[in-house]
Amino acid sequence: MDCYIVDFHAAELGVGAEVALEDSVMRKGLPAKAGSKILEGFIAPFDATVVTRLLDSKYNIAGRIGMNEFGLPSLISAGTNDIYDAVKAVSAGVVSYALCNDVFGVYRRRAAEEGICYLHPTYGTVSRYGLVPMACSMDQIGVACKNPDDCFGLLSVIAGNDPKDGTMYPEKSYVYSKTGKELRIGVPAAVLNQADEGTKESIRRFAAGFTSTDMELKYFDVYKQVLYILTCAEASSNLTRYDGIKFGYRASNYKNLNELYTRTRTEALGVEAKLAAIMGFMVLSQENYIPYYEKAMKIRRLIKESLRFGEYDIIVLPTKISDDSYENLSLFALAPLAGLPSLSFSFKGCGIQLVADAKNENALLTAWEGVKNEI
Amino acid sequence: MQNVKRYEMLNKLELAEDEYVRVSACADKLTESFKLLEGIDTSGAEPLITVLDIQNVLREDVCVKTIPREELLAPAPDSTGGFFRVPKTLE
Protein backbone atom coordinates (compact mmCIF):
# COMPACT_ATOMS: atom_id res chain seq x y z
CA MET A 1 0.00 0.00 0.00
CA ASP A 2 1.28 3.43 -0.86
CA CYS A 3 0.07 6.41 1.05
CA TYR A 4 1.31 9.93 1.24
CA ILE A 5 2.57 11.39 4.50
CA VAL A 6 3.18 15.10 4.31
CA ASP A 7 4.62 14.97 7.79
CA PHE A 8 4.29 12.60 10.69
CA HIS A 9 0.58 11.88 11.00
CA ALA A 10 -0.02 8.42 12.37
CA ALA A 11 -3.64 8.38 11.27
CA GLU A 12 -2.65 8.59 7.61
CA LEU A 13 -0.85 5.27 7.69
CA GLY A 14 -2.81 2.10 7.22
CA VAL A 15 -2.36 -1.47 8.39
CA GLY A 16 0.50 -3.24 6.68
CA ALA A 17 2.60 -0.12 6.27
CA GLU A 18 6.19 -1.04 6.96
CA VAL A 19 8.90 1.25 5.61
CA ALA A 20 8.70 5.04 5.68
CA LEU A 21 11.03 7.00 3.43
CA GLU A 22 12.62 10.22 4.51
CA ASP A 23 11.48 12.97 2.14
CA SER A 24 14.80 12.75 0.27
CA VAL A 25 14.47 9.10 -0.83
CA MET A 26 12.60 8.92 -4.14
CA ARG A 27 9.50 6.80 -4.70
CA LYS A 28 8.22 7.08 -8.25
CA GLY A 29 5.07 9.15 -8.43
CA LEU A 30 5.41 10.65 -4.96
CA PRO A 31 6.76 14.12 -4.15
CA ALA A 32 10.37 14.25 -2.96
CA LYS A 33 10.91 17.64 -1.36
CA ALA A 34 13.84 16.90 0.93
CA GLY A 35 12.05 19.10 3.45
CA SER A 36 12.35 22.17 1.22
CA LYS A 37 9.88 24.51 -0.41
CA ILE A 38 12.30 24.77 -3.34
CA LEU A 39 11.29 21.24 -4.41
CA GLU A 40 7.58 22.03 -4.19
CA GLY A 41 5.78 20.36 -7.07
CA PHE A 42 8.59 17.94 -7.86
CA ILE A 43 7.36 14.38 -8.36
CA ALA A 44 10.00 11.66 -8.35
CA PRO A 45 10.29 10.25 -11.90
CA PHE A 46 11.88 6.97 -10.73
CA ASP A 47 12.38 4.78 -7.67
CA ALA A 48 15.55 4.99 -5.62
CA THR A 49 17.50 1.73 -5.82
CA VAL A 50 16.77 1.07 -2.14
CA VAL A 51 13.06 1.35 -2.90
CA THR A 52 13.32 -1.05 -5.85
CA ARG A 53 15.08 -3.57 -3.63
CA LEU A 54 12.49 -3.24 -0.87
CA LEU A 55 9.63 -3.72 -3.30
CA ASP A 56 11.37 -6.73 -4.87
CA SER A 57 11.59 -8.22 -1.38
CA LYS A 58 7.87 -7.60 -0.76
CA TYR A 59 8.20 -4.78 1.75
CA ASN A 60 5.45 -2.19 1.80
CA ILE A 61 6.40 1.43 1.31
CA ALA A 62 4.37 3.47 3.77
CA GLY A 63 5.12 6.85 2.25
CA ARG A 64 7.44 9.76 2.82
CA ILE A 65 8.15 11.47 6.07
CA GLY A 66 9.35 14.91 7.22
CA MET A 67 12.99 15.92 7.71
CA ASN A 68 15.28 18.89 8.22
CA GLU A 69 15.68 20.84 4.97
CA PHE A 70 18.14 18.73 2.91
CA GLY A 71 19.12 17.05 6.18
CA LEU A 72 21.11 20.11 7.25
CA PRO A 73 21.57 20.69 10.98
CA SER A 74 19.59 23.48 12.59
CA LEU A 75 22.55 25.55 13.74
CA ILE A 76 20.78 28.91 13.72
CA SER A 77 18.03 27.57 15.97
CA ALA A 78 20.60 25.58 18.01
CA GLY A 79 18.86 22.29 17.28
CA THR A 80 15.46 23.32 18.62
CA ASN A 81 13.88 23.07 15.19
CA ASP A 82 15.25 19.65 14.28
CA ILE A 83 12.72 17.50 12.46
CA TYR A 84 13.18 13.78 13.12
CA ASP A 85 9.77 12.42 12.23
CA ALA A 86 11.28 9.13 11.08
CA VAL A 87 12.40 8.40 14.63
CA LYS A 88 9.02 9.45 16.02
CA ALA A 89 7.14 7.24 13.56
CA VAL A 90 9.22 4.17 14.39
CA SER A 91 9.13 4.87 18.11
CA ALA A 92 5.34 5.19 18.06
CA GLY A 93 5.05 1.90 16.17
CA VAL A 94 3.44 3.54 13.16
CA VAL A 95 6.01 1.98 10.85
CA SER A 96 8.54 -0.76 11.44
CA TYR A 97 11.38 0.96 9.63
CA ALA A 98 12.42 4.31 8.23
CA LEU A 99 15.16 4.96 5.68
CA CYS A 100 17.01 8.23 6.22
CA ASN A 101 20.22 10.06 5.35
CA ASP A 102 22.02 11.08 8.52
CA VAL A 103 25.27 12.99 7.95
CA PHE A 104 24.98 15.25 10.98
CA GLY A 105 23.73 12.78 13.59
CA VAL A 106 20.19 14.09 14.02
CA TYR A 107 18.74 10.58 13.73
CA ARG A 108 21.60 8.82 15.51
CA ARG A 109 21.11 11.05 18.54
CA ARG A 110 17.31 11.17 18.57
CA ALA A 111 16.93 7.41 17.97
CA ALA A 112 18.93 6.67 21.10
CA GLU A 113 16.99 9.29 23.06
CA GLU A 114 13.66 7.85 21.93
CA GLY A 115 14.65 4.29 22.82
CA ILE A 116 14.97 2.96 19.27
CA CYS A 117 18.13 2.50 17.19
CA TYR A 118 19.72 3.88 14.03
CA LEU A 119 22.17 2.03 11.82
CA HIS A 120 24.38 4.19 9.61
CA PRO A 121 26.08 1.78 7.16
CA THR A 122 29.56 1.92 5.65
CA TYR A 123 29.78 4.53 2.90
CA GLY A 124 29.63 2.78 -0.46
CA THR A 125 27.60 -0.24 0.64
CA VAL A 126 24.11 1.21 0.07
CA SER A 127 23.22 2.87 -3.24
CA ARG A 128 22.63 6.62 -3.24
CA TYR A 129 20.79 6.44 -6.58
CA GLY A 130 17.49 8.21 -6.04
CA LEU A 131 18.59 10.05 -2.89
CA VAL A 132 18.32 13.84 -3.10
CA PRO A 133 21.99 14.79 -2.65
CA MET A 134 23.28 17.06 0.11
CA ALA A 135 26.96 16.22 0.71
CA CYS A 136 27.79 13.52 -1.83
CA SER A 137 31.03 12.28 -0.26
CA MET A 138 29.17 11.61 3.00
CA ASP A 139 25.50 11.02 2.12
CA GLN A 140 24.47 7.49 3.08
CA ILE A 141 21.05 5.94 3.52
CA GLY A 142 20.63 4.24 6.90
CA VAL A 143 17.90 2.44 8.85
CA ALA A 144 15.89 3.47 11.90
CA CYS A 145 13.91 0.75 13.68
CA LYS A 146 13.10 -0.57 17.12
CA ASN A 147 15.95 -3.02 17.53
CA PRO A 148 19.31 -3.54 15.83
CA ASP A 149 18.55 -7.14 14.82
CA ASP A 150 15.82 -5.84 12.52
CA CYS A 151 18.05 -2.99 11.31
CA PHE A 152 20.63 -5.47 10.06
CA GLY A 153 17.89 -7.57 8.47
CA LEU A 154 16.65 -4.62 6.44
CA LEU A 155 20.18 -3.50 5.64
CA SER A 156 20.90 -6.88 4.07
CA VAL A 157 18.00 -6.20 1.67
CA ILE A 158 19.12 -2.73 0.53
CA ALA A 159 22.93 -3.10 0.63
CA GLY A 160 25.05 -4.25 -2.30
CA ASN A 161 26.65 -2.80 -5.41
CA ASP A 162 24.44 -0.80 -7.76
CA PRO A 163 25.84 0.06 -11.21
CA LYS A 164 23.86 3.31 -11.06
CA ASP A 165 26.04 4.59 -8.20
CA GLY A 166 29.73 4.91 -9.11
CA THR A 167 30.85 5.36 -5.51
CA MET A 168 30.25 1.86 -4.24
CA TYR A 169 32.25 -1.15 -3.14
CA PRO A 170 31.96 -4.04 -5.64
CA GLU A 171 30.27 -6.62 -3.36
CA LYS A 172 26.84 -7.51 -4.74
CA SER A 173 25.44 -8.32 -1.30
CA TYR A 174 26.41 -8.52 2.35
CA VAL A 175 25.66 -11.07 5.05
CA TYR A 176 25.38 -9.57 8.52
CA SER A 177 25.94 -12.02 11.34
CA LYS A 178 27.47 -12.26 14.79
CA THR A 179 31.17 -13.11 14.81
CA GLY A 180 32.79 -15.53 17.24
CA LYS A 181 35.62 -13.13 17.87
CA GLU A 182 36.04 -11.49 21.27
CA LEU A 183 35.49 -7.78 20.78
CA ARG A 184 37.82 -5.06 21.99
CA ILE A 185 36.10 -1.77 22.76
CA GLY A 186 38.02 1.47 22.39
CA VAL A 187 36.95 4.07 24.96
CA PRO A 188 38.10 7.64 24.20
CA ALA A 189 38.31 9.00 27.75
CA ALA A 190 38.80 12.62 26.68
CA VAL A 191 35.48 12.54 24.79
CA LEU A 192 33.66 10.58 27.46
CA ASN A 193 34.68 13.14 30.08
CA GLN A 194 32.61 15.75 28.23
CA ALA A 195 29.40 13.73 28.72
CA ASP A 196 27.11 13.84 31.75
CA GLU A 197 27.58 11.41 34.64
CA GLY A 198 24.73 9.15 33.57
CA THR A 199 26.17 8.69 30.10
CA LYS A 200 29.65 8.09 31.46
CA GLU A 201 28.30 5.35 33.71
CA SER A 202 26.30 3.79 30.87
CA ILE A 203 29.36 3.65 28.65
CA ARG A 204 31.50 2.22 31.45
CA ARG A 205 28.93 -0.52 32.03
CA PHE A 206 28.71 -1.19 28.30
CA ALA A 207 32.50 -1.47 27.98
CA ALA A 208 32.68 -3.69 31.05
CA GLY A 209 30.90 -6.41 29.09
CA PHE A 210 33.88 -6.67 26.75
CA THR A 211 37.63 -6.26 26.72
CA SER A 212 38.10 -2.51 26.69
CA THR A 213 41.03 -0.24 26.07
CA ASP A 214 41.60 3.47 26.50
CA MET A 215 42.23 5.23 23.24
CA GLU A 216 42.61 8.72 21.85
CA LEU A 217 40.48 10.20 19.11
CA LYS A 218 43.12 12.40 17.58
CA TYR A 219 41.80 15.61 16.02
CA PHE A 220 38.47 15.28 17.88
CA ASP A 221 38.67 19.00 18.75
CA VAL A 222 38.26 19.88 15.06
CA TYR A 223 35.86 17.12 13.99
CA LYS A 224 32.89 19.50 13.87
CA GLN A 225 34.77 22.14 11.89
CA VAL A 226 36.01 19.62 9.32
CA LEU A 227 32.54 18.11 9.00
CA TYR A 228 30.81 21.45 8.56
CA ILE A 229 33.38 22.91 6.15
CA LEU A 230 33.24 19.90 3.85
CA THR A 231 29.48 19.42 4.02
CA CYS A 232 28.62 23.09 3.45
CA ALA A 233 31.01 23.14 0.48
CA GLU A 234 29.35 20.10 -1.06
CA ALA A 235 25.86 21.26 -0.11
CA SER A 236 26.39 24.71 -1.65
CA SER A 237 27.36 23.05 -4.91
CA ASN A 238 24.35 20.71 -4.80
CA LEU A 239 22.01 23.60 -3.99
CA THR A 240 22.95 25.46 -7.17
CA ARG A 241 20.71 23.13 -9.20
CA TYR A 242 17.64 24.71 -7.59
CA ASP A 243 17.14 27.62 -9.95
CA GLY A 244 13.42 27.58 -10.71
CA ILE A 245 14.00 26.31 -14.25
CA LYS A 246 14.22 22.54 -14.29
CA PHE A 247 11.96 21.48 -11.42
CA GLY A 248 10.39 22.59 -8.19
CA TYR A 249 9.37 26.04 -7.06
CA ARG A 250 9.53 29.15 -9.25
CA ALA A 251 8.86 32.67 -7.99
CA SER A 252 5.88 34.28 -9.67
CA ASN A 253 7.19 37.82 -9.92
CA TYR A 254 10.35 38.47 -11.98
CA LYS A 255 11.43 40.64 -14.86
CA ASN A 256 14.39 38.70 -16.20
CA LEU A 257 16.39 35.51 -15.75
CA ASN A 258 18.55 36.87 -12.94
CA GLU A 259 15.49 37.93 -10.95
CA LEU A 260 13.90 34.54 -11.59
CA TYR A 261 16.93 32.80 -10.07
CA THR A 262 17.28 35.19 -7.15
CA ARG A 263 13.64 35.46 -6.15
CA THR A 264 13.06 31.73 -6.52
CA ARG A 265 16.00 30.84 -4.27
CA THR A 266 15.32 33.65 -1.81
CA GLU A 267 11.66 32.77 -1.40
CA ALA A 268 12.01 28.98 -1.30
CA LEU A 269 15.25 28.09 0.48
CA GLY A 270 15.09 28.01 4.27
CA VAL A 271 17.48 29.91 6.49
CA GLU A 272 19.67 26.89 7.31
CA ALA A 273 20.06 26.10 3.60
CA LYS A 274 20.95 29.73 2.95
CA LEU A 275 23.55 29.57 5.71
CA ALA A 276 25.06 26.38 4.23
CA ALA A 277 25.07 27.89 0.73
CA ILE A 278 26.80 31.07 1.92
CA MET A 279 29.33 29.23 4.10
CA GLY A 280 30.01 26.80 1.27
CA PHE A 281 30.76 29.57 -1.20
CA MET A 282 32.95 31.20 1.45
CA VAL A 283 35.14 28.13 2.07
CA LEU A 284 35.40 27.48 -1.67
CA SER A 285 36.33 31.07 -2.56
CA GLN A 286 39.78 31.85 -3.91
CA GLU A 287 41.01 33.42 -0.66
CA ASN A 288 39.59 30.74 1.63
CA TYR A 289 40.00 27.53 -0.37
CA ILE A 290 43.46 26.64 0.97
CA PRO A 291 43.06 27.65 4.65
CA TYR A 292 39.59 26.13 5.00
CA TYR A 293 38.47 23.67 2.31
CA GLU A 294 41.77 22.09 1.33
CA LYS A 295 42.94 22.08 4.94
CA ALA A 296 39.73 20.32 6.02
CA MET A 297 40.22 17.69 3.30
CA LYS A 298 43.78 17.08 4.53
CA ILE A 299 42.62 16.78 8.14
CA ARG A 300 39.92 14.37 6.95
CA ARG A 301 42.71 12.12 5.68
CA LEU A 302 44.63 12.50 8.96
CA ILE A 303 41.49 11.59 10.91
CA LYS A 304 40.92 8.46 8.81
CA GLU A 305 44.56 7.39 9.03
CA SER A 306 44.78 8.06 12.78
CA LEU A 307 42.34 5.25 13.58
CA ARG A 308 43.82 1.96 14.83
CA PHE A 309 41.17 -0.66 14.26
CA GLY A 310 43.77 -3.36 14.79
CA GLU A 311 43.96 -2.35 18.45
CA TYR A 312 40.20 -2.18 19.00
CA ASP A 313 37.16 -3.35 17.03
CA ILE A 314 34.69 -0.70 18.09
CA ILE A 315 34.85 2.88 19.33
CA VAL A 316 32.11 3.78 21.81
CA LEU A 317 30.87 7.37 21.99
CA PRO A 318 28.10 9.33 23.72
CA THR A 319 25.24 10.78 21.64
CA LYS A 320 25.27 14.12 23.47
CA ILE A 321 27.95 16.24 25.10
CA SER A 322 26.33 19.66 24.86
CA ASP A 323 23.00 21.43 24.41
CA ASP A 324 24.63 23.25 21.47
CA SER A 325 23.90 21.38 18.22
CA TYR A 326 27.17 22.57 16.63
CA GLU A 327 29.24 21.18 19.54
CA ASN A 328 27.43 17.85 19.24
CA LEU A 329 28.39 17.52 15.56
CA SER A 330 31.80 16.32 16.77
CA LEU A 331 30.22 13.16 18.13
CA PHE A 332 28.70 12.19 14.81
CA ALA A 333 31.44 13.34 12.43
CA LEU A 334 33.66 10.27 12.55
CA ALA A 335 31.35 7.91 10.65
CA PRO A 336 30.66 10.21 7.67
CA LEU A 337 34.20 11.67 7.53
CA ALA A 338 35.87 8.25 7.47
CA GLY A 339 33.02 6.35 5.75
CA LEU A 340 32.47 4.06 8.75
CA PRO A 341 29.38 2.20 10.02
CA SER A 342 27.76 3.34 13.23
CA LEU A 343 24.98 2.02 15.45
CA SER A 344 23.27 4.13 18.09
CA PHE A 345 20.81 2.96 20.74
CA SER A 346 19.84 3.52 24.35
CA PHE A 347 21.84 1.61 26.96
CA LYS A 348 20.96 1.83 30.64
CA GLY A 349 18.82 4.85 29.89
CA CYS A 350 21.46 6.87 28.01
CA GLY A 351 22.31 7.21 24.34
CA ILE A 352 25.45 5.51 23.09
CA GLN A 353 26.86 5.00 19.63
CA LEU A 354 29.28 2.41 18.36
CA VAL A 355 31.59 2.98 15.39
CA ALA A 356 33.39 0.13 13.62
CA ASP A 357 35.85 -0.20 10.76
CA ALA A 358 34.59 0.07 7.18
CA LYS A 359 32.51 -2.95 6.11
CA ASN A 360 32.70 -4.38 9.64
CA GLU A 361 29.03 -3.98 10.52
CA ASN A 362 29.32 -7.48 11.98
CA ALA A 363 31.32 -6.06 14.89
CA LEU A 364 28.41 -3.72 15.63
CA LEU A 365 25.96 -6.62 15.48
CA THR A 366 28.19 -8.74 17.70
CA ALA A 367 28.45 -5.94 20.27
CA TRP A 368 24.68 -5.53 20.26
CA GLU A 369 24.20 -9.29 20.71
CA GLY A 370 26.55 -9.11 23.68
CA VAL A 371 24.52 -6.53 25.56
CA LYS A 372 20.98 -6.79 24.26
CA ASN A 373 19.76 -8.68 27.32
CA GLU A 374 21.10 -5.96 29.61
CA ILE A 375 19.87 -2.76 28.03
CA MET B 1 32.12 37.08 8.78
CA GLN B 2 33.22 39.54 6.17
CA ASN B 3 31.69 39.46 2.72
CA VAL B 4 28.38 37.77 3.62
CA LYS B 5 26.79 40.11 1.07
CA ARG B 6 29.21 38.96 -1.60
CA TYR B 7 28.54 35.24 -1.04
CA GLU B 8 24.83 36.01 -0.82
CA MET B 9 24.95 37.69 -4.23
CA LEU B 10 27.02 34.85 -5.76
CA ASN B 11 24.41 32.41 -4.44
CA LYS B 12 21.59 34.35 -6.10
CA LEU B 13 20.08 35.14 -2.71
CA GLU B 14 18.69 38.31 -1.16
CA LEU B 15 18.38 37.77 2.58
CA ALA B 16 15.68 39.65 4.44
CA GLU B 17 17.07 41.86 7.19
CA ASP B 18 16.22 39.48 10.04
CA GLU B 19 17.66 36.54 8.08
CA TYR B 20 20.81 38.51 7.37
CA VAL B 21 21.29 39.19 11.08
CA ARG B 22 20.81 35.54 12.01
CA VAL B 23 22.94 34.15 9.18
CA SER B 24 25.74 36.65 9.82
CA ALA B 25 25.81 35.88 13.54
CA CYS B 26 26.00 32.15 12.90
CA ALA B 27 28.59 32.62 10.13
CA ASP B 28 30.73 34.64 12.57
CA LYS B 29 30.54 31.87 15.15
CA LEU B 30 31.43 29.21 12.58
CA THR B 31 34.29 31.22 11.07
CA GLU B 32 35.71 31.85 14.53
CA SER B 33 35.65 28.13 15.28
CA PHE B 34 37.39 27.36 11.94
CA LYS B 35 40.48 29.19 13.25
CA LEU B 36 41.28 26.07 15.26
CA LEU B 37 42.33 24.39 12.01
CA GLU B 38 45.36 26.69 11.85
CA GLY B 39 46.99 24.75 14.67
CA ILE B 40 46.83 21.39 12.88
CA ASP B 41 49.99 20.33 11.08
CA THR B 42 48.91 18.91 7.72
CA SER B 43 52.29 19.01 6.02
CA GLY B 44 52.70 15.92 3.87
CA ALA B 45 49.00 15.05 3.98
CA GLU B 46 47.11 14.78 0.71
CA PRO B 47 43.49 16.00 0.61
CA LEU B 48 41.02 13.14 1.06
CA ILE B 49 38.56 13.39 -1.81
CA THR B 50 36.73 10.12 -1.16
CA VAL B 51 36.85 7.56 1.62
CA LEU B 52 36.60 4.67 -0.84
CA ASP B 53 39.81 2.87 -1.71
CA ILE B 54 38.52 1.99 -5.17
CA GLN B 55 39.28 3.91 -8.35
CA ASN B 56 38.02 4.21 -11.91
CA VAL B 57 34.74 2.39 -11.62
CA LEU B 58 33.72 1.67 -15.19
CA ARG B 59 30.79 -0.14 -16.71
CA GLU B 60 30.05 -1.54 -20.16
CA ASP B 61 29.05 1.06 -22.73
CA VAL B 62 25.57 -0.32 -23.26
CA CYS B 63 22.58 1.66 -24.52
CA VAL B 64 19.69 1.63 -22.07
CA LYS B 65 16.35 3.40 -22.05
CA THR B 66 16.42 6.56 -20.00
CA ILE B 67 13.58 8.61 -18.63
CA PRO B 68 11.40 9.93 -21.49
CA ARG B 69 11.79 13.63 -22.30
CA GLU B 70 8.20 14.45 -21.38
CA GLU B 71 8.61 12.85 -17.94
CA LEU B 72 11.74 14.90 -17.27
CA LEU B 73 10.03 18.09 -18.38
CA ALA B 74 6.88 17.37 -16.38
CA PRO B 75 8.21 18.76 -13.06
CA ALA B 76 9.49 21.94 -14.73
CA PRO B 77 7.59 25.09 -13.75
CA ASP B 78 7.38 26.05 -17.43
CA SER B 79 8.21 24.22 -20.65
CA THR B 80 7.32 24.49 -24.30
CA GLY B 81 7.93 22.38 -27.40
CA GLY B 82 10.07 19.89 -25.51
CA PHE B 83 12.30 22.51 -23.89
CA PHE B 84 12.57 24.30 -20.55
CA ARG B 85 11.09 27.76 -20.92
CA VAL B 86 12.96 30.71 -19.41
CA PRO B 87 12.47 34.49 -19.59
CA LYS B 88 13.91 36.28 -22.58
CA THR B 89 17.68 36.55 -22.12
CA LEU B 90 18.59 38.77 -25.11
CA GLU B 91 16.96 42.03 -26.11
Question: What does this molecule look like?
Answer:
The complex is a heterodimer of chains A (375) and B (91). By secondary structure, chain A is an alpha/beta fold. Chain A has one domain: Amidase signature (AS) domain (Amidase signature (AS) enzymes), CATH 3.90.1300.10. In chain A, helix 7 packs across helix 10. The longest helix of chain A has 18 residues. Chain B is built from 3 helices and 2 strands; from the N terminus they run αααββ. In chain B, strands 1-2 form a two-stranded antiparallel ribbon. In chain B, a hairpin with a 2-residue loop joins strand 1 and strand 2. Chains A and B meet through helix 7, helix 8, helix 9, helix 10 and helix 11 of A and helix 1 and helix 2 of B.
How helix-rich are the residues of chain A, as a percent range? 25-40%
The biggest sheet of chain B, with number of strands, parallel, antiparallel or mixed sense and barrel status, is:
2 strands, antiparallel
Oligomeric description of these chains? heterodimer
Number of helices of chain A: 12
Poorly predicted spans of chain B: none
Helical content band of chain B: 25-40%
Helices and strands of chain B: which structural class? mainly alpha
Average pLDDT number of chain B: 91
Number of helices of chain B: 3
Poorly predicted runs of 5 or more residues of chain A: 6-16
Strand tally of chain A: 10
Run of helices and strands of chain B: HHHEE
